[in-house]
Amino acid sequence: MIRILTLSLATFLLGLIGCGYHTVGQASRLPANIRVLAVPVFVNQTQTYRVEQILTRDVVREFNDRTKYHVVSSSDTDADATLKGTVLSAQASPLTYDTQGRISSAVVTVTVKVSLVDHGGHVLFENPTYTFREQYQVSREVTSFFEEQTPALQRMSHDFARTLVSDVLEAF
């Protein structure tokens, strides 16, 4: 009986290995010849100050933390592929109101166009409308008031970078 269970478990595990299952973030669908990624600062088509810098910084950090690729900031180098991003929109909107009609929470929404193109001009990955949102509370206390939109934008940027790198690596 134990021998049958052991044999069944071994067969099942071999089946999983053969099916292409892998640990998330460990596989890469990018061509093997790509070793250097250029990630120039994203283009900002909005009025939101420094949003392109925040997004680019987090994407570079995520590639450095999760991959073996050498990431450079200039597309003028001999990079094997270049990740280009354009911030299409960035806005904060009221989400909820208190009983006096004042805004009590808001949401920051950012839409980014991203493409990864190899040295030969072939598109390896593209998403024309990444849209990310982050909710935040609006403080009513004047003594403890601080602008929460920027920390919300930074939290949203971390989520964007994690998702983008996963999508690029796993070809979603």
Q: How would you characterize this protein structure?
A:
The protein has 172 residues and is α/β, with parallel strands linked by helices. Helices cover 32% and strands 33% of the residues. Strands 1, 2, 3, 4, 5 and 6 form a six-stranded mixed β-sheet that branches. Strand 5 (103-118) and strand 6 form a beta hairpin. It starts with a helix and ends with a helix.
Spatial separation of the terminal alpha carbons: 43 Å
In the predicted model, the low-confidence regions spanning at least 5 consecutive residues are 18-26
Q: Helix and strand string, N-terminal first?
A: HEEHEEEEH
Q: Taking Cα atoms only, what radius of gyration do you get, to the nearest Å?
A: 21 Å
CATH class: Alpha Beta
State the major sheet: 6 strands, mixed
Structural class: alpha/beta
Within the CATH hierarchy, at the fold level, what is the topology? Double Stranded RNA Binding Domain
Individual helix count: 3
Overall spatial form: flat
CATH architecture: 2-Layer Sandwich
Number of domains: 1
Number of strands: 6
* Residues in helix, %: 25-40%
